[in-house]
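Record Mor transcription activator family protein, 85 aa.
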Amino acid sequence: MEYKKAEEILPKELLKEIQNYIQGATLYIPKETYHEWGEKSGIKDKLHKRNQLIKEKFQQGNPIQSLANDFYLSEETIKKIVYKK
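=>
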Protein backbone atom coordinates (compact mmCIF):
# COMPACT_ATOMS: atom_id res chain seq x y z
CA MET A 1 0.00 0.00 0.00
CA GLU A 2 1.34 3.39 -0.94
CA TYR A 3 0.75 6.54 1.11
CA LYS A 4 0.07 9.85 -0.61
CA LYS A 5 -0.62 13.29 0.82
CA ALA A 6 -4.24 14.19 0.23
CA GLU A 7 -3.40 17.88 -0.19
CA GLU A 8 -1.16 16.99 -3.14
CA ILE A 9 -3.72 14.95 -5.09
CA LEU A 10 -7.24 16.04 -4.05
CA PRO A 11 -9.01 19.26 -5.00
CA LYS A 12 -9.20 21.75 -2.09
CA GLU A 13 -12.99 21.55 -1.93
CA LEU A 14 -12.94 17.78 -1.62
CA LEU A 15 -10.16 17.87 0.96
CA LYS A 16 -12.16 20.32 3.10
CA GLU A 17 -15.23 18.11 2.86
CA ILE A 18 -13.24 15.05 3.96
CA GLN A 19 -11.78 17.06 6.85
CA ASN A 20 -15.34 17.58 8.11
CA TYR A 21 -15.43 13.83 8.79
CA ILE A 22 -11.84 12.99 9.69
CA GLN A 23 -8.74 15.05 10.46
CA GLY A 24 -5.17 14.06 11.18
CA ALA A 25 -5.77 10.35 10.71
CA THR A 26 -4.91 7.84 8.04
CA LEU A 27 -7.74 7.14 5.62
CA TYR A 28 -7.83 4.02 3.45
CA ILE A 29 -9.53 4.32 0.06
CA PRO A 30 -10.09 0.87 -1.50
CA LYS A 31 -9.68 0.08 -5.17
CA GLU A 32 -12.78 -0.06 -7.33
CA THR A 33 -11.85 -3.50 -8.62
CA TYR A 34 -11.20 -6.29 -6.19
CA HIS A 35 -9.62 -9.67 -6.82
CA GLU A 36 -10.62 -12.53 -4.58
CA TRP A 37 -7.97 -14.60 -2.88
CA GLY A 38 -6.04 -16.73 -5.34
CA GLU A 39 -7.53 -15.27 -8.53
CA LYS A 40 -4.42 -13.52 -9.79
CA SER A 41 -1.99 -16.34 -9.01
CA GLY A 42 -4.33 -19.12 -10.13
CA ILE A 43 -3.93 -21.03 -6.86
CA LYS A 44 -7.69 -20.96 -6.22
CA ASP A 45 -8.33 -22.98 -9.39
CA LYS A 46 -5.42 -25.33 -8.69
CA LEU A 47 -6.72 -26.10 -5.20
CA HIS A 48 -10.23 -26.64 -6.54
CA LYS A 49 -8.92 -29.14 -9.12
CA ARG A 50 -6.79 -30.88 -6.47
CA ASN A 51 -9.76 -31.15 -4.13
CA GLN A 52 -11.95 -32.56 -6.91
CA LEU A 53 -9.28 -35.19 -7.62
CA ILE A 54 -9.14 -36.09 -3.92
CA LYS A 55 -12.94 -36.48 -3.84
CA GLU A 56 -12.88 -38.69 -6.95
CA LYS A 57 -10.15 -40.92 -5.52
CA PHE A 58 -12.05 -41.21 -2.23
CA GLN A 59 -15.24 -42.20 -4.08
CA GLN A 60 -13.21 -44.84 -5.94
CA GLY A 61 -12.35 -46.42 -2.60
CA ASN A 62 -8.98 -44.91 -1.69
CA PRO A 63 -8.67 -44.68 2.11
CA ILE A 64 -8.22 -41.32 3.83
CA GLN A 65 -4.79 -42.24 5.19
CA SER A 66 -3.57 -43.13 1.69
CA LEU A 67 -4.90 -39.87 0.25
CA ALA A 68 -3.23 -37.90 3.05
CA ASN A 69 0.10 -39.52 2.19
CA ASP A 70 -0.33 -39.07 -1.57
CA PHE A 71 -1.24 -35.38 -1.34
CA TYR A 72 0.99 -34.49 1.64
CA LEU A 73 -2.00 -33.36 3.70
CA SER A 74 -3.22 -34.31 7.15
CA GLU A 75 -6.00 -36.84 7.50
CA GLU A 76 -8.18 -34.12 9.04
CA THR A 77 -7.71 -31.93 5.95
CA ILE A 78 -8.62 -34.84 3.67
CA LYS A 79 -11.76 -35.46 5.75
CA LYS A 80 -12.76 -31.81 5.41
CA ILE A 81 -12.35 -32.04 1.64
CA VAL A 82 -14.19 -35.32 1.06
CA TYR A 83 -17.06 -34.73 3.49
CA LYS A 84 -17.70 -31.11 2.45
CA LYS A 85 -21.00 -30.76 0.59
